[in-house]
What does this fold into?
Amino acid sequence: MSAILEVEGVRVRYRVKPALRALLEGGSEAFIDAVAGVSLTIGEGETFGLVGESGSGKTTLARSIMGLLRPREGSIRFRGRELVGIGPRALKAFRREVGAMFQDPVGSLSPRLTVRSLLSEPFRIHGLRERDLQGEVRRLLRMVGLSDEFASRYPHQLSGGQARRIGVARALALGPKLVIADEPTAGLDVSVQGEVLNLLHRLQQELGISILAISHNLNVVRHITDRLGVMYLGRLVEQGPTDAIFEEPRHPYTLALLSANPHPDPDAVADRLELSGEIPSPMERPSGCEFHPRCPFVQARCRESHPGIEGMERGHAFRCFYPVGG
Amino acid sequence: MRRGAKGAVLEVRALSVEFSTARGPLKALRNVDLDVPAGSVVGVVGESGSGKSTLAGAVMRLLAENTRITAGEVRFEGRDLLRASNAEMRAIRGERISMVFQDPMTSLNPVLSIGTQMVDIQYRRDRSREEKNARAVEMLRRVGIPDAERRMAHYPHQFSGGMRQRVAIAMALETEPALLIADEPTTALDATLEVQIIHRLKDLQRSEGCAILFISHHLGVIAELCDYVVVMYGGEVVERGTVRDIFHRPGHPYTEKLLECDPARIADRSRDLPTIPGDVPDLVALPRGCVFAPRCAKAVDVCGRDAPPDVWLEEGHEAKCHLAAKAGGGAASGFEGGAASGAGPRAGAGAASGTAAESGAGEGAGAGTRTASGGAPA
It folds into this structure.
């Protein structure tokens, strides 16, 4: 399996204090690292899932891969070509090959454009006016299982599931090789969620695309991804094949995340690793292992030094001195 | 949740609510019955547009201007809230019934400190400033806010999402209400915080003894927290029962499908996930017969023709479905006497013996409307 996307040591930094104020006040940090050195590889035709709680840096990482944010450090290679630091023209060419689905199915569509305009916009942006736009719109609608009459509708006339289908069609309009789906099912009812995920899967099979799926819904991720990365405070604390991570999580945070998932069965025995506290602010990164203040298995060493990447057998890696299980 | 059970803090009877829209009246709730027994947690589960939040809004009488309550009663502590004056409602809201909303950022005032807000909500109490402060700190501690005294001076934006929701819960419980309505209180929170909040709610419910009406679309949370469950679809209650009835022996095809669709219940990894084909019903132009029939894989002729009865399946468990009736469920016993139907907690005994007198008053009306409603939504 050859890699379509290789992310290496990416760090994305946000300024949290204006430069002048930082200079005058000195002392505290003027920046936070929302993504603090992430490496991952996505194979051809593979679905890679990114999970983690709000503020863990999932969306920031995705936006830097799409070229919407410039990483401060690291390298992002798409089919062997470096993306970090490329010019606007090359970036535009790259964006023809990567499709994006953003959070909020209805909110990510312009309320003032019809479905027809929304679906032909990617062609116009990329100067593909010579194509039969009407035909393309019909093709895309059919691809996502909607009838032609949807072309004249506005986003507010769509249900959540229909809007999501339009989002899928837009992402796939130019025949990308990689689709980045940020929370593809957030805000959808369970009865509709399956529909969208099945559609994505069918199209992935037909078109041979790779998918980077970001979600906080572990139940969804388990079914749709081949490999999984768990983010905490801007770092991947564990990654590996989805089955391996669900069956044998090694990082305590992954274990807590998995066990926090309430099971829809009143008699389920909740053998739960409950975490106290919340994800700390990246402005005040804890010393040593950044998970230590919340970790139930914390030891002295965890407070002092930062664990590197351990494991790596069968592609299952984690950052922890005292991994669970195994 | 036995209907008409003694000891129910909240009894909703044959409640129907309409919104006037440009296309005509939108029938958001039709003939909804619901009981919340004292000290229990009742979950209302359903997808968007099923009427869950409208139900909560109707109980609190906090609905938009274009709302019309066309029928029914909301009995709380012996009176019908739908007929209470505005002044009476103000005395009840926050005092006897409190509410926790989905988004703690918008339900707290961003320009007042948490302490100020915690003290303000005690305006009805004859307490000194110091006592109110002490009580506020005490409540914040009880919901697990560390360093509560210092946190009193902080503003909502200085709290994280999980902490804000705890503050909202602390406020809701400060007055020791008889009923807490929680409308998707954990939807905006991450998984590890969701669990914290649910446990906190459960502990508080035990220690403070209030009843909770818990609205959610998250089946896992409902299974973990609730004693009784009401399943709503298209503005109707389609099934009710104990949490085990609903999750282990669903009697309505919609409940079955809903459970089936939850990826958390699918043990083996699958790329082909189940769905419910079709769309939610248009509540302005309702389908004839059963609201779920157009999407129901098991529908037969009668489903598209007549509105289904409430079928008694077992003590406290009923489903609004023709097929359940055919399968020989307790054959629409719900229509007689009202009190015989409905989900019974321990109320089982209490209600069976004690309802006769009690039911004379309100139940008759409840049962009557329900019978009449057989064909109403058509």
